[in-house]
Amino acid sequence: MKLAISSNGKDLESEVSEVFARCPYFIIAEIENGEIKKFEAIENEIQNAMHGAGISAAQLLTEKNVEAVITKNIGPRALDVLKQFNIKVYFGSGKIEDVLKDFSQEKLKKV
Which among 38, 77, 100, 108 has the fewest CB atoms less than 10 Å away? Predict the structure, then answer.
C-alpha cells in the first residue's frame, strides 16, 4: 500500500505535521506485510499558496497514486478531493515511523 504522511521533516524520525495542506513535506511510503519497503520525502511547494492549498495538496497526492493519507488535521475541501479519488484518510501523531507501524497494526482512527 502506498501512503502519504504530512510531515515536518524529510525522514521517518520526523513528526507528523499539525496541518495537511501547509505541511513542509509529504513522506510517501510503501508498506507491504506491515513493513516499510521504501519511502521518499517530497517538498510541499503548495504550503505557501494564497488560496486552495488543501485542494492542490490533495490533487498532488492523487497524482502520486497514494491509497491513504495520514495527518493530524485536514480541511473539508482537501478531504472531499481525497474521498472523490477513494483515498482513505487517517489521523495520526508522533514520529512517522511509529505512525506507520500503528497504521500497519490498524490502530489509527479513520476519518
Answer: 38
Full set of structural domains in the chain with CATH: 2-51+77-105 (3.30.420.130)
Picking from 103, 60, 104, the residue whose alpha carbon sits closest to that of residue 82 is: 60
Give alpha helix (H) positions in 50-92: 53-63, 76-84
**6 alpha-carbon distance from chain centroid:** 4
Residue 83: which residues within 8 A CB-CB, separation 6 or more? 89
Q: Is 91:108 a contact under the CB 8 Å cutoff?
A: yes
Note the pLDDT tens digit of each residue in 59-90: 999 999 999 999 999 999 999 999 999 999 99
Instruction: Indicate the pTM of the whole model.
Output: 0.94
